[in-house]
Amino acid sequence: MVKLGLDAPDVADAARVYARTIADMELALKDHKWIVSDEFSLADICLAPYFQTVYQFDWTELFVDSPRVADWFARCQARSSYQQAVSDDFPPEVIADLQARGKPAWEKIKAHLSL
Question: Where along the chain do its domains lie?
Answer without folding.
Answer: 8-113
